[in-house]
Amino acid sequence: MIDQETVFTTDHDSVSSYPSFATPTEVGDAIIKAGFNVVESANNHIDDFGEGFLTDTLNFWKTKYPDVTLLGIHDSQEDADTVKIREVNGIKIAFLDYTYGTNVGGIEGKDYMIDMIRKDKITAMIQKAKQQADCIIFVAHWGTEDETMPNEYEKQWAAYLMEQGVNVIIGGHPHVLQPYGRLTDDKGNETVVFYSLGNFVSTQQKLEELLGGMAKFTIQKTVQDGKTSIEILTPTVEPLVMHYNSDAGEFGPYMLSDYTEELASQNGVQSYIGSGVFTLDNLKKKFNEIMSMNVTPSTGTNLLDVTIDTDLNMIDASGNVVEDTDSITAEKYYADKGIDITSEDFNSADNNSGSTDDSSDDGSYDDSYSDDGSYDEGSYDDGSYDDSEE
């Protein structure tokens, strides 16, 4: 599964970069060649060029790769009301994909074309998905760009999606990694949330923007006495590095474990941030820093009904701007805790233990990670189940 954040065009003269993006269709071919079969498209750039390129993108996927599960954009109301499901190893997985908003504000008169985060619509689609599938994966385009700490909007929506029965939440938009964790409540609801996986392929110009992540987890389905249950086992984030070198014609992601100091020294980002910054050691330290943050779950609900306009203002039903007074930045998080993130002890590998928060009032995060960032799951019966990994 991949988030394709730009529209496609067959006209190479129309290819465009920041701030309005249009990508040659050859990128779509490369996505398929790389092995992806689920494509997320609900994001803030999807209407950068209006209905025309959005329609071209829909037509590209539906005519050239009809077997791809395309999420977040639609050519009809009927398609928008249809839950997209893939069956893997006997497990029916429903995919939902929504964005906080777009840079243009959507397609006038055709709201169905882009899935926007709206509470009533999402609630109805989750209920429909629960009737048709075993497991629900919700993809959310949310958060604050270049901020490694999830904001209040993300946290309120994560809690709400958990309450509605979503099994896994995968976030994007900040262009940097954010922590992940297991969210639970006292009613037996549980979800795994990856707040942001950062960038997969980009040529952005900061170390944090070239450090991404690959979410991995196992979906376990158990059928007993005619009842089906789903567990999400061993969720982890595998760190990635985006490597680009225009002179050598090299563009592509690496697993951080496979990346070398020599490659880091040749990365095109060196010309933007100076020597001695983009190093293998600093990439590892930044990953540990982000994954060590404890995210306090939100009990608020005031942001669930807001819409976000093209100026990124949160607007309530009466048209008033809603101020976010609860979010904190990663910088403030560490300052409040008196933690020196440059220290050797802080940046050790053992400090990467996933996202938990023992100080949370409701204990919503399950503090059961092992030192390698994975969950310790030792209580399930593995004698009879199908499993699949997305």
UniProtKB/TrEMBL annotation:
Bias (Acidic residues): 358-390
Region (Disordered): 343-390
Residue span, Capsule synthesis protein CapA domain: 1-204
InterPro entries: Capsule_synth_CapA, CW_Biosynth-Accessory, Metallo-depent_PP-like
Domain of life: Bacteria
Alphabetical list of CDD domains matching this protein: MPP_CapA
Pfam families: PGA_cap
Similarity-based family: Belongs to the CapA family.
Listed name of the protein: CapA family protein
